[in-house]
Amino acid sequence: MVNNKTFRVGLFLTISLVWSLMWFSQKYLLRDFFSNIPTLIVILFGLIPTIGLLIGAYITRRKLPKREMSLMGKNSKMALLIVSLPIICLTLLGVNNSFNVQSNLFGFLISTFTVIYALFEEMGWRGYLQEEFMEKKQKWFGYVFIGIIWYLWHWYFLRTGSNPKLIMLPILIAASIGIGEIAESTKSILICGAFHSLANMIIIYPIIANNISLKEKLIVFLICIIIWVFAIRKIEKDKKNIATNIL
Fold first, then answer.
1. pTM
2. 231 contacts: CB under 8 Å, gap ≥ 6
3. Were 210 and a residue from 13, 143, 149, 206 both cysteine, which residue would form a disulfide, CB within 3.0 to 4.6 Å?
4. Mean per-residue pLDDT for 74-98?
5. Residue 244 — very low, low, confident or very high, per pLDDT cuts 50/70/90?
6. How many Å from the N-terminal Cα to the C-terminal Cα in the chain?
7. d(Cα 225, Cα 220) in Å, to the nearest integer?
8. Contact in structure between 142 and 129 (CB atoms under 8 Å)
């Protein structure tokens, strides 16, 4: 008989992967429709693939016997600081675009969208799936498993013709390990979304990555990483102080 955990994971994967495959495969058939949508509204359709993750996480997370992750985690002020930094950086630097939108305004809009997109993804990866593998004996298996599922979720997008870009599999597994450890430390889905979004902004999304210089990418990366390290240390220090006071 299938146990509850196997059923939950299977249900989550079925909803998220089937939805992703349906969306990415149909996306190219809807190009004419997209071309008739006014300016920036078309970008919002990029959130559609994450709906499967949100639905899957909403249904399965509620059935978990124990939930440690939350939106803000252990320190809401630090979580808001962390997630706001890439948005502030791209707003100040500005992002050139073909939408005829002023560059600083576009920097704010596209960075906010990117953070929301990453947050929606992390609702599934850390908000639910990592919770299933929180036990120490399963943690590292969980990180690798999430990286593999993350790759499969993007499979239709990460292919050239009929050939998948296999180089992305170890990259996503490594990213899953890094973000997974951040999730363990902060218990914040929002903070995980911030780290996820930074990689999208400076490497993955051409609408941003191709329209800011290498120097600007380095500035955004260094500002975010340096301040984030201090913020996460603050969260960990506060957590240790709370544990000490309890004892």
1. 0.89
2. 78, 81, 82
3. 206
4. 96
5. low
6. 42
7. 8
8. yes
Q: What is the pLDDT of residues 176-195, one digit of tens each?
A: 999 999 999 999 999 999 99
Which of the residue ranges 23-32, 51-60, 133-142 has the most confident prediction, judged by mean pLDDT? 51-60
Contacts of range 140-144, beta carbons closer than 8 Å, 24 or more positions apart: 140/177, 142/180, 143/173, 143/176, 143/177, 143/180, 144/173, 144/176, 144/177
Contact 68, 134 (CB under 8 A): yes
Q: Report yes or no: 16 and 52 within 8 Å, Cβ to Cβ.
A: yes
CB-based contact 123:57 (threshold 8 Å): yes
Report the pLDDT value the prediction gives residue 100, as an integer from 0 to 100: 86
Report d(CA 123, CA 213) in Å as an integer: 31
**Cα 196 to Cα 198: distance, rounded to the nearest angstrom:** 6
Cβ-Cβ contacts under 8 Å for 233 (sequence gap 6 or more): none
Looking at the chain, the number of H-run helices and the number of E-run strands are 11, 2
- Cβ neighbours of residue 6 under 8 Å, at least 6 residues apart? none
Q: For residue 82, give every residue at least 6 positions away whose Cβ sits within 8 Å of its Cβ, in sequence order, or none.
A: 190, 191, 194, 227, 228, 231, 232
pLDDT tens, position by position, 222-241: 999 999 999 999 999 887 77
Cα→Cα distances 48→17, 43, 44, 52, Å: 13, 10, 8, 8
How far apart (Å, rounded) are the C-alpha atoms in residues 95 and 212? 6
